[in-house]
Write a structure and sequence with these properties.
By secondary structure, the chain is an alpha/beta fold. The protein is built from 27 helices and 20 strands. Strands 1, 2, 5, 6, 7, 8, 9, 10, 13 and 14 form a ten-stranded mixed sheet that branches. Helix 10 crosses helix 11 and helix 22 packs across helix 23. The model has no long low-confidence stretch (mean pLDDT about 90).
Length: about 725
């Protein structure tokens, strides 16, 4: 049964496939597809939150009838649908031509969060955006991947600040019917419901799906009548602090997610775990083989040989560890199904450094995966040191932990106006070949004035979007005037603008620049060469220290002492991220070393020609070449924060400000534009998700495919 059948009954027959297009997130990274929907919207507001499913529900039928007769609209509609159909065919893709027939292979990708688009708030931060970009790139390359995750109807956190800058969470439930998702239905046409029976009280969940180009993402939703109230809340939001609820979520994701694939007849050959939250999927694959008569040893060897595990967390406290007593509650009846005794089972997940702490999901995943990777070269070093004790015999350089540096999905994060410049000067095939570094030498052919004017336009759009958000907050919530002062309405579009938009965790040091308030004030309020900062980000609901950081930045933003040169933007999400990485002049990143596993926000700014000032950690150790931005080493003693802040002030005052404000008679800062061009040419090919996904396929998936086919390596 077609899951979209009857969902858009008012669509005229001639344009009936608009419903199919709106329900596939392919439109989110294809500007020509978004333009089709904007043509239907007579208001077409620049800053309206874009959700074509909601738009189609709300449009008057007369508008759709007129579009179905409008020859100009129909020409564009037909062209978009032709391209859509061509790209939905995996035969002819990179994977088919270079690797294997995608019809004979399936890779199951499990992640606790996915950052796909702000109309689907199933993400908390970088891990989710990485997973979303991964799915989109697999679609582009024809990698035969299926995703599994949670729907999270309440998302992560809708951030509202009090008048004194304290972060408050606000409940806002996703309207499932007006989002680009749909029910998965059983053979009788009813919503597919799956029961996870290993619980003390079994939990049921419905299955939804989001279509991400060629890739299908299946989503778990426990908010159904069959469950009691506590279990109905199980999939409501990300990263609960309650350890039992978190354990149940991870059982649902790993074991329940595997059962989704089985119920739908999806026989996956390879399992890819994005972090340890979904590692119980390994157990369920083993249990299935044991049930068919295989020994645990043989089953675990087969599953291990076809499992890929990506770890992102360089902080020991960031890895999930569940007490044995809690594990007993939920796994006492499951362990015998693996033909293991209790001690043997728990040894799979014990960290030898702290054997009494409980079942460590990362230790378990590392032991049970043949292919393990960190997410940057520096992170590989950190991860190997952190987990070397799991393999006490081999030297560190022989440990089974590799690295694949993260990348970003170019079509998602590159602004359409910058893309138009590339079309003009790089030729029509640049996007298909964007991981080839040679074509990016043509960036130098773009006239400085064209690139600078395009950047100036994006900066003005960003400023206008901040003002519009502030205006709506004023109208809807009668916000305190101090909040309006802090929201960015006083920013100067001609001033050097630095962006900082991250999760407000203490190690990211959002408030580092406030170490020396007097020196900072001098930088910000220089009458001839002013500087301003835009901050955005959320703290975890239980992170008191992170909330204090937000309050500190907010109070600086509303303080006249800094002359209106600081702004804090509420409710950071994918939409705000797009405006900021497109519109700021410079990106700031200053975490404590070595806690930046990779980082991707700076990549998104750099591909748009907006250079980065960053500590040398994560991806910037590989990406910085001395010409594409600025760096400082971040190594210090007990006074690290003070020292690092002084380094930032020095670089801004001595290097960045003079270069930015050195302009010719036409107002073009040619030296700055050279840095912009170098940012693009050095970042797009090397730090794109295309390069990243190809590395996963060539380094890991190919070997796992051979193991799945019984080929010894």
């Amino acid at each position: 049964m077609d899951p979209l059948e009857g969902k858009f009954p008012h669509l005229p027959e001639r344009i009936i496939r608009l419903g199919e297009l709106a329900s596939n997130l392919w439109w989110s990274w294809h500007p020509e597809a978004r333009a089709i929907f904007h043509l239907l919207d007579g208001n077409g507001a620049e800053f309206k939150i874009f959700n074509p499913v909601k738009m189609l529900y709300e449009l008057d039928g007369s508008v759709l009838d007129a579009a179905a007769k409008d020859t100009r609209f129909l020409r564009r509609y037909d062209a978009v649908m032709a391209r859509f159909d061509a790209e939905m065919n995996a035969y002819g893709s990179w994977f088919y031509s270079r690797i294997a027939d995608p019809g004979k292979l399936q890779i199951a990708y499990f992640s606790a969060e996915y950052g796909l688009h702000h109309s689907l708030p199933f993400y908390a931060g970088g891990l989710g955006f990485l997973a979303g970009d991964f799915l989109k790139e697999c679609s582009d390359l024809g990698v035969p991947l299926v995703g599994v995750g949670f729907m999270y109807p309440e998302g992560y956190l809708h951030q509202k600040l009090s008048a004194d800058g304290w972060q408050m969470g606000e409940r806002e439930v996703l309207d499932r019917e007006q989002a680009p998702i749909c029910h998965v239905r059983d053979k009788d046409g009813q919503p597919l419901v799956i029961k996870v029976p290993i619980m003390e009280l079994p939990i049921n969940f419905e299955v939804w799906k989001a279509q991400v180009g060629r890739v299908t993402l299946y989503l778990i939703d426990t908010d159904i009548e069959e469950n009691d109230p506590w279990n109905r809340e199980m999939s409501a939001r990300l990263y609960t602090e309650d350890p039992e609820q978190r354990l149940v979520q991870e059982i649902l994701l790993g074991i329940g997610g595997t059962q989704i694939l089985n119920a739908l007849g999806i026989k996956h050959s390879i399992l890819h775990l994005n972090e340890g939250h979904s590692a119980f999927a390994i157990l369920e694959r083993i249990r299935e083989k044991v049930e068919k008569g295989m020994s645990f040893r043989d089953a675990s060897e087969q599953v291990k040989a076809t499992t890929v595990f990506t770890t992102h967390t360089p902080i020991p406290a960031g890895h999930d560890v569940f007490p044995f007593s809690l594990m007993d509650k939920y796994f006492s009846s499951y362990i015998p199904l693996l033909e293991l005794d209790r001690d043997s089972f728990y040894k799979l997940g014990v960290d030898p450094k702290d054997p009494t702490a409980g079942f460590n999901m990362t230790a378990f995943a590392l032991r049970m995966s043949a292919y393990c990777n960190s997410v940057s070269k520096k992170h590989e070093e950190v991860t190997r040191k952190m987990w070397q004790h799991l393999w006490p015999d081999p030297p560190e350089n022989k440990m089974p932990i590799d690295y694949i540096t993260n990348g970003v999905h170019i079509s998602t994060w590159l602004d359409a106006r910058i893309s138009a410049l590339f079309n003009k000067y790089l030729g029509p095939n640049w996007l298909a070949d964007h991981d080839n570094s040679f074509i990016w030498e043509l960036i130098d052919d773009i006239p400085d004035d064209e690139l600078w004017r395009t950047h100036r336009l994006l900066k003005m759009i960003m400023m206008a979007s901040l003002q519009e958000r502030a205006r709506l907050r004023w109208l809807e919530d009668h916000a305190d005037p101090n909040m309006m002062m802090a929201s960015g309405v006083m920013l100067n579009p001609n001033a050097l603008t630095i962006g900082f938009a991250r999760r407000f965790a203490t190690y990211k040091r959002a408030a580092l620049i406030f170490q020396d308030a007097e020196r900072l004030k001098g930088i910000l309020t220089n009458q001839k060469k002013p500087v301003q900062f835009i901050f955005a980000g959320k703290a975890h609901p239980s992170d008191y220290s992170g909330k204090l950081l937000i309050q500190q930045v907010f109070n600086a933003a509303r303080d006249p002492y800094f002359g209106g040169r600081i702004a804090f933007v509420e409710d950071y999400d994918e939409e705000i991220a797009q405006y900021l990485v497109h519109g700021v002049d410079l990106w700031l990143n200053n975490p404590l070393i070595p806690f930046e596993a990779s980082g991707t926000s700076g990549m998104k700014a750099e591909i748009n020609g907006n250079p980065q000032l960053s500590v040398l950690d994560g991806w910037w150790l590989e990406g910085f070449n001395g010409k594409n931005g600025w760096a400082f080493d971040g190594d210090g003693n007990d006074n690290t924060d003070c020292r690092d802040a002084q380094e930032i002030y020095n670089i801004i005052e001595k290097d960045i400000v003079p270069l930015y404000y050195e302009k010719d008679e036409a107002g073009i800062p040619h030296g700055w534009v050279r840095v912009m061009k170098e940012s693009i040419k050095s970042t797009v090919p090397a730090f794109s998700s295309r390069r990243m996904v190809k590395e996963y396929v060539l380094k890991f998936y190919q070997g796992a495919m051979k193991s799945a086919n019984g080929i010894k390596q």
